[in-house]
Design brief:
230 residues; 39% helix; alpha+beta; globular
């Protein structure tokens, strides 16, 4: 059964005006709230909570702990009891590689270590097939015998584990467009720093690349040429 602590605000999961407004915008609907965090917050890899619920909402990204912070804050803002669960889960190495945007298992293992994420490789048949990773998820006390919006009593609720940070990704490799456009990073930065500028560095890079595309690949958009994780 839930207790009072499952509904109160915390430092990492505050019931701030921003959180309350976003929960209301989602209709205080538990399913819509979960789908929002699951489908709109990109998973990053780092240890512990760095952003909290509000930072994760604003940046639309966070690790497992910060996505749990956001989900719990939105749930509690909607009157749903929820709590943190900490444990170790086994992830296929391919899923870890896709999430990190890497094509090599050893690189993925090293990246987890550099990010400070507690982990251990799972080796079968002489190769790394999975990774045991420390993970934080959410347990929510949700109604399950009645459709949402209907009145339910506690006999129709159950603790349901939810892992919003576990997502499927498709990696799109960068096309090498900057090199095609003749952009060398060191030269570009040196030229930028030599005199006062009316634009910031990123704006100048985007402008130069777009000029190149307009002259050489008029039907191509910059966004389609950048590497990303979907």
């Amino acid at each position: 059964m839930p207790d009072a602590a499952d509904l109160v605000a915390t430092i990492d999961a505050p019931l701030s005006p921003e959180i309350l407004a976003h929960a209301e915008a989602l209709g205080n609907d538990y399913i819509r709230i979960y789908e929002f965090v699951k489908n709109n917050i990109q998973t990053q890899w780092y240890a512990g909570s760095m952003k909290g619920a509000v930072g994760t909402l604003r940046q639309r990204s966070g690790n497992d702990v910060d996505q749990a912070n956001l989900l719990i804050a939105l749930f509690r803002a909607s009157g749903l009891a929820s709590r943190y669960v900490h444990g170790v889960i086994e992830l296929p190495i391919e899923a870890v590689m896709d999430s990190l945007g890497l094509a090599n298992a050893n690189q993925a293992i090293r990246a987890l270590g550099q990010a400070g994420v507690a982990h251990s490789p799972v080796i079968r048949g002489g190769r790394v097939v999975a990774v045991n990773v420390a993970h934080t998820w959410v347990s929510a006390y949700v109604p399950y015998t009645n459709y949402r919006g209907a009145l339910v009593d506690t006999s129709g609720s159950i603790w349901l584990p939810l892992m919003p940070a576990m997502k499927s990704y498709q990696v799109q490799a960068a096309s090498g467009l900057f090199q095609q456009a003749g952009l060398a990073a060191d030269d570009f930065v040196d030229n930028y720093l030599q005199k006062p500028q009316s634009q910031d560095l990123l704006e100048q890079i985007v402008e130069q690349v777009n000029d190149y595309l307009l002259q050489n690949q008029s039907d191509t958009k910059l966004a389609s040429q950048l590497g990303n994780i979907k």
